[in-house]
């Protein structure tokens, strides 16, 4: 009989989060990040040249976070798969996640389509497609979109080399390799148990590195916001304010009403969930990148008592396949361009756009200009809306990226809860206790039953 695997070190989430919950508000991360955002806006507005010069500060912080994303995704997935009692469970979790992602994407696209048809923000613009000239980054995004086939996310799934996937930071390819590695590790039985134990221990080290990097979050948020306002100016926000307002309003409606209805069915309050994740939302707001909060989001969801294999598979995969904010943006932007260029679109043509968007929206998470590439791919594939029309919204895209990232974060949080319930692994009473106290609590019974290490350790 094989010797039992050594107990793996539990996730380092609990001590840090419990300690954070006891700190006064002025010592918590979200306060300092919010302060940095406000300071960055003022700097970019009052001293644009200084704000523009702050670009390296923001990009360096985001790069430091991205440096840790692929190792964390690999270690979390491999550790989760290696700790489950059945490989069949891994397949079920993956399939259920993908099914929910498709439903979520469709709902987000429909909400955006309905909103843009009701409010018609592009009516009255009367832009002439022949007068719109693609230049700079916008022209490159359209070129990339024209070369992007609908099935690209399937072929791009397989890396040409395992090391290359990590070096390039391609999360989707890292997920593919991690799942194969985890399955193989589980399949070799007792031979792989020491490696599983080593993966859990290495995970604790990587999360400690993450803790050090997060100390610089306020500085990174300041640099990113100062650069955005300094380069594009606050006036850019007002020039197409109606579209920006509609996008933010539609996204808020989707999170509060649509996702709120989903969590209500799970007997979880959406506002308490959002408050529990407030530090992650503030971090995303400051950096305009949902990737910056991915490692902390995974820790927070484990802190709700959700199994590590569910979190490890659902969250990273959702960053490529469950982009609710990006889906709302796609449907809004495509029809806005049609309205602004006086291009008539029938209901059938709009539904055709939606069908293409279901495919073009996948697999682009974390890629620079992903929203524009997906939009250009959609417009060039359908051919009914001039692709050059993206120049109409290129100037305000940076201000809409924050909302896309925030909505994507909310959507993937809810998706993880849904998959956990679908797997009969969601202890609603435990989740509500954590959300009420905003302090993650250990749930060792769940981990023991699943063959997992305890999610939340006690302090040494």
Explain what the structure shows.
With 460 residues, the chain is mostly helical. It has one domain (13-450): Proton glutamate symport protein (Orthogonal Bundle), CATH 1.10.3860. 73% of the residues lie in helices and 0% in strands. It is built from 24 helices and no strands. Helix 4 runs parallel beside helix 9 and helix 14 (270-276) packs across helix 23 (428-437). The longest helix is centred in the first third of the chain and has 33 residues, at 87-119.
What's the helix and strand layout?
Elements: H1 13-22, H2 29-46, H3 48-53, H4 55-83, H5 87-119, H6 136-146, H7 152-155, H8 162-168, H9 171-187, H10 193-214, H11 217-232, H12 235-239, H13 241-265, H14 270-276, H15 278-287, H16 294-303, H17 308-321, H18 324-340, H19 347-360, H20 370-382, H21 391-394, H22 397-422, H23 428-437, H24 444-450
Helix pairs in contact: 2-11, 2-15, 4-9, 4-10, 4-11, 4-17, 5-13, 5-17, 5-18, 5-19, 5-22, 6-20, 9-17, 11-15, 13-18, 13-22, 14-23, 15-22, 16-17, 17-22, 18-19, 18-20, 18-22, 19-20
N→C terminal distance: 32 Å
Radius of gyration: 22 Å
Morphology:
globular
The CATH H-level superfamily is Sodium:dicarboxylate symporter
Share in β-strands: under 5%
Largest sheet: none
- Please mark out the parts with pLDDT under 50 across 5 or more consecutive residues, or reply none: 1-10, 12-21, 444-460
Transmembrane segments: 29-47, 67-87, 99-119, 171-188, 209-234, 246-268, 372-396
Region (Disordered): 438-460
Pfam family, one: SDF
Keywords: Cell membrane, Membrane, Symport, Transmembrane, Transmembrane helix, Transport
């Amino acid at each position: 009989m094989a010797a039992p695997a050594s107990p793996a070190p539990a996730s380092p989430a609990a001590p840090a989060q419990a300690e954070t919950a006891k700190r006064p508000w002025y010592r918590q991360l979200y306060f300092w990040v919010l302060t940095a955002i406000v300071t960055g806006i003022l700097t970019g507005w009052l001293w644009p040249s200084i704000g523009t010069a702050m670009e390296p500060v923001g990009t360096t912080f985001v790069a430091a976070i991205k440096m840790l994303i692929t190792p964390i995704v690999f270690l979390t997935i491999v550790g989760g798969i290696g700790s489950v009692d059945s490989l069949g469970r891994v397949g079920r979790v993956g399939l259920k996640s993908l099914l929910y992602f498709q439903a979520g994407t469709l709902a987000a696209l429909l909400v955006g389509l309905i909103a843009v048809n009701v409010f018609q923000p592009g009516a009255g613009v009367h832009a002439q497609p022949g007068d719109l000239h693609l230049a700079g980054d916008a022209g490159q995004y359209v070129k990339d979109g024209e070369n992007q086939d609908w099935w690209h996310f399937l072929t791009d799934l397989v890396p040409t080399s395992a090391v290359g996937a990590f070096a390039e930071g391609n999360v989707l390819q890292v997920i593919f390799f991690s799942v194969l590695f985890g399955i193989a590790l589980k399949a070799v039985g007792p031979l792989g148990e020491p490696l599983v134990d080593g993966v859990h221990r290495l995970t604790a080290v990587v999360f400690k590195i993450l803790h050090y990097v997060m100390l610089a979050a306020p500085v990174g948020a300041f640099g990113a916001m100062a650069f955005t306002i300094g380069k594009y100016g606050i006036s850019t926000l007002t020039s197409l304010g109606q579209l920006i307002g509609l996008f933010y309003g539609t996204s808020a409606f989707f999170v509060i009403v649509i996702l709120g209805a989903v969590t209500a069915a799970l007997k979880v309050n959406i506002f308490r969930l959002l408050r529990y994740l407030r530090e992650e939302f503030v971090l995303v707001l400051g950096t305009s990148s949902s990737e910056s909060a991915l490692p902390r989001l995974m820790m927070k969801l484990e802190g709700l008592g959700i199994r590590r294999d569910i979190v490890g598979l659902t969250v990273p995969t959702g960053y490529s396949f469950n982009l609710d904010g990006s889906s709302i943006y796609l449907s809004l932007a495509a029809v806005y361009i049609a309205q602004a260029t006086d291009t008539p679109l029938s209901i059938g043509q709009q539904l055709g756009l939606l069908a293409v968007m279901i495919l073009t929206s996948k697999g682009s998470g974390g890629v620079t200009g992903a929203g524009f590439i997906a939009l250009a791919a959609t417009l060039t594939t359908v051919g009914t809306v001039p692709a050059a029309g993206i120049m109409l919204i290129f100037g305000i895209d940076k201000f809409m990226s924050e909302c896309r990232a925030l909505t994507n974060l909310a959507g993937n949080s809810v998706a993880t809860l849904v998959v956990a319930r679908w797997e009969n692994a969601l202890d609603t009473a435990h989740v509500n206790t954590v959300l009420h106290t905003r302090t993650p609590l250990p749930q060792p019974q769940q981990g023991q039953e699943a063959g997992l290490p305890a999610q939340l350790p006690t302090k040494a």
